[in-house]
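Continuing from the previous page...

OK, I double-checked the sequence for FAD-binding oxidoreductase against my notes and this is the correct one:
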Amino acid sequence: MPDDKGTVLTTADERAMADELRSRLNGEVIDRAHPAYDGARAVWNGLIDRRPAVIARCSGTADVVETVKAARKYRPVVSIRGGGHQVAGSAVCDDGLVIDLSGMKGVHVDPSARIARAQGGVTWGELDRETQLHALATPGGEISATGIAGLTLGGGFGFVMRTFGLSCDGLRSIAVVTADGSVRVASREEEQELFWAARGGGRGIGVVTSFDYDLQSLGPEVDAALVIHPFDRAEEVLRAWRDATESAPDTVTPELLLWTVPADPEVPPELHNVNCVMVSAVYGGPSGAEAKSALAPQRDFGPALLDLSGTLSYVELQSANTWRFPDGDRYFMKSHFMDELNDEAISVLVDWYSRRPTPDCLIVVRTLGGAVARVGPDDSAFAHRSARFNVSIDAGWQDPALDDTAIGWARSAWDAIKRFSSGGSYINFAGLGEDASELRSAVYGSHEERLERVRAAYDPEGLFAPAARRP
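Thanks. Re-ran it with the corrected sequence; updated structure tokens here:
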């Protein structure tokens, strides 16, 4: 597959492409002179400041088809925007064409068939709102503002993944506009290689305009553990938590965060922004005595600062942390998959967290296994089914003057932990554009060559090659 960088468009070609799209699209076409340009090019991560030539805000699949045809004609760099929440900011590109699906918000739920169809601009909060009317869910992300498209195509970690799998495991089918302008439906029965690629390695296969998900019974209320421990016991708590995850049932998805106590009205003011260890877990089933019993071991790691465990709505759970990651703040994240979390690795994690440059920096340890591991290692493009943990180094800050410091901390922490890694990295927490080449094999593992073949089959001229190369 060509490693196509795209054509650098002349001013005349930019204008011609914009005019052509305006004549063909029902949606809005935004160029550099448009009064909405700065707002349209902005994404969740304020660190990203890219200036595309044209943004095509598609109103539906027909608009996407016309935009892909224009891209074939003019050959700009192409990027695809769904929710615009991805850390690396791949939704926008410099001097190219953004195929923007953010206005495509349709969701239809068939509760009898337990299927939801959602367009490519839908966020997890919007999807959950509709499915929870029927006490149904598909495994989503941990931040309600995240787009379903990027998370699902990259795999998709979530609060109930050990029970129901990754977001991509909930996929029933996709509708995708490929590089030739065709609209294809991919599923386990048709376009099987395309469907395989979409589940964990879906960048560069085309523009996915809608997702059909299988739904599971969950909610409207769920039980969750959330216990906040003092940071001076961090290593002790981490070791105890690690050991407890070995016997956790598949109905429980444990997670541990080195972070600060949230400035929440329910939290005593004297604890706001204090360093801590947060142990959380969600029961992927009905609320009640069985759930509370399964979660009890996640609450038993010694004296705590706060125990906020309890019952809440699934919609509340999914949006609980969204306010801590506001639009426009600056973010950088990198991750490692790990087969074990030994005592030395725990010491390194705690040491590097203690060096964090801002209170908005955190380290997250997620547990896999359960339903994630029950999918065959080659049944989807997601390449890390056997990993036990994922460790994510998440830098957050507001002041641009701290860019080098915050990113440097995250990179150094990631480097320090690398020797404990199983050699893999998660595409949705994979740094910025400059990390792409070194991480490609780490992200896709043994599936890299197969992915290249699939992309080449559907995009022989490399129209979406730049998108495929980005983290």
